[in-house]
Amino acid sequence: MSDVDFKQALMDAGIPTTEAGLRQAWESEVAAQGSTLSNTSAYSPFWRVITALVTKPVLWLITFISGTVLPNFFVKTATGNWLDMLAWAVNVERKPATKADGMLLFTRATADGALEVPAGTRVHSAAINGRVYEVVTVAAASFSDGQAQLQIAVRASDAGSGFNLAPGYYAILPEPVPGIVQVVNADGWLTTPGADSEPDDELRLRTRNQFSAVNQWHTDAVYRALIAAFPGVQPNGVYFEHGAPRGPGSANAYVLFAADAPAATYLEQINSAVMDQGNHGHGDDLLVMAMPETLHAIAVELWPSANLTAAQHMALASDVEQFIRAAFRENTSSGYQPTLTWPQSRFSFSRLTEELHEQFPQLESLRFANEDIVSELNIPRIGTLEVTLHA
């Protein structure tokens, strides 16, 4: 947020902000009006009345002005509905929460005959820090004779970015479907990512970006505003590659999604909005793509504190694994807040080690087999993750 001290700003303007300062101001004003006070004791009935009727309400007003009104006059410090109004003034609205849509791959035991998977079939993820995420089939779908696998459309049971899980997470049928032996979310399963109601920090970034985009010339700020208006796209997650990668007038925009990148059809919607709906400049050729990924084999050894039970050992290993996966953006609602991987940056395993020790005090020691990851215009992802627990 901001380090601006608005109360100090009032004091610098000569406005008293304390009870003692206000009392001194009242005394000075009374004297200036030619009145002589004979009893200015704190126990004087006169001053007790003045404090009750004037000083305290003024202190409330000063607190309200310095703590609420002044901070909410500025995009940098405004929050909530105040920020909504500042964003509205530059034609930006807070993005609402949306549900994730995608396709799950169902596999049946035999390819003979027809088989229907009914609408409303629920599929769960494994528990992530105690929470299970659920998606539901949106319509009935049928296997035809000879078909062993079928992609079926699903929708998250609730809105939020936490449902944008990486491939392999959705694999549990809480109520078995006769004939179905396996279900999984494969690569590129998301057709539309879910999103939380846009937080203040992201709305603030889009509002600030709008000041650069207001001229509507086709600058990075204009294209960033167009792309970041889509659910699941953060304004600080759009990276541009200039230098005419596909010839004169061309540029690329790489989008970093919070968790798993959605299917190509979602990017086609973004590209259509930019290039096919009259939103690009004359001669511009902008191609929007998902941020390229690099896959890494992560290995970590754990030494837990003494006197932990076998169940506690297993829980610790599972929690550490989820923490690491959260750092590599496989899930966004695990409850953990590690330092995330970013393009054009260094991912430090020593920092991750420090954060793991802070999060899990029952860890006596741990050691990664990896060197730091230095990313360019790409995002590091987990190829394999091996957690070895030394009991």
Please indicate the percent range of residues in DSSP E strands (runs of 2 or more).
Answer: 15-25%
Structural class: alpha+beta
Number of strands: 17
Largest sheet report:
7 strands, antiparallel
Radius of gyration of CA atoms, rounded to a whole number = 29 Å
The percent of residues in helical segments reads 25-40%
Q: What string gives the helices and strands in order? A: HHHHEEEEEEEEEHHEEHEEHEHEEE
Global geometry: extended
| Uncertain segments | none
Number of helices: 9
Taking the alpha carbons of the first and last residues, their distance comes to 43 Å
Mean pLDDT: 88
Overview of this protein structure:
- The chain has 391 residues and is an alpha+beta fold.
- It contains nine helices and 17 strands.
- It has helices spanning 6-12, 19-32, 45-69, 80-88, 200-213, 220-228, 264-276, 310-327, 349-359; strands spanning 101-108, 115-117, 122-125, 134-137, 141-143, 149-156, 170-172, 180-184, 190-192, 233-241, 250-257, 285-290, 293-304, 346-347, 363-368, 373-374, 379-389.
- The strands form five sheets. Strands 1, 3, 4, 6, 7, 8 and 9 form a seven-stranded antiparallel beta sheet that branches. A three-stranded mixed beta sheet has the order 10-11-12.
- The protein starts with 5 loop residues before the first helix and ends with a strand.
- The model has no long low-confidence stretch (mean pLDDT 88).
List strands and helices in order, with pairings.
Elements: H1 6-12, H2 19-32, H3 45-69, H4 80-88, E1 101-108, E2 115-117, E3 122-125, E4 134-137, E5 141-143, E6 149-156, E7 170-172, E8 180-184, E9 190-192, H5 200-213, H6 220-228, E10 233-241, E11 250-257, H7 264-276, E12 285-290, E13 293-304, H8 310-327, E14 346-347, H9 349-359, E15 363-368, E16 373-374, E17 379-389
Parallel strand pairs: 11-12, 13-17
Antiparallel strand pairs: 1-6, 1-8, 1-9, 2-5, 3-4, 3-7, 4-6, 10-11, 13-15, 14-16
